[in-house]
Amino acid sequence: MSTTAMPKPAAQIDALTGKSTAVALDKGFTDALTSLGLTPGIVGGATLDNGSVSFPITGGQVKYYTPGTVNPYVQGDIKHNGSGLSLAAGATTVELTNFDIDPGTSVLYGDVSVNGAPAASHALLFNLDGSTLQPLQNGPDSTAILQGTRVLVSADAAALLNKTFNTDAVKAGLLVGIATITLNTK
Questions:
Q1: Which of 72, 129, 168, 183 has the CB geometry, 3.0–4.6 Å to 150, for a possible disulfide?
Q2: d(CA 3, CA 130)
Q3: pLDDT at residue 6 greater than cutoff 90
């Protein structure tokens, strides 16, 4: 019996120590929020600037393999504790926080609260489509940049938002935007 050795990662960070995941919000997503009367906001250390929302990375680890040598070629866990996104309409505010990206399974989990009360913990919030991911780039100040993943509303998140805001307009697969993950390499 022959066994094939796992290739060595092209890049590996065993303990992520900062930088961010930013999502350039898609016009279709922001138009959908407007049509539903939802106002987006930020929670904790997140920022919203020029149509892009950014969440600080607080921990995790990641391996990047040369595309084509391993599937999936980006693996790990990228944590964003203490920040998130809010959606408000009238007296109702939903907060999506503590994002946890699993690039190997192409999903993003997080916690959900409605008007401050927990509604879901470690729920599947967004699906990630890495088919548009660009090759790993070296950035300034000892950073690595992964750019191009499409962020899509999950079926679970669509159902929860529709129930909370009494609508059926939030559809699974709605494009939220394009992600850029910037990681410290030192």
A1: 129
A2: 28
A3: no
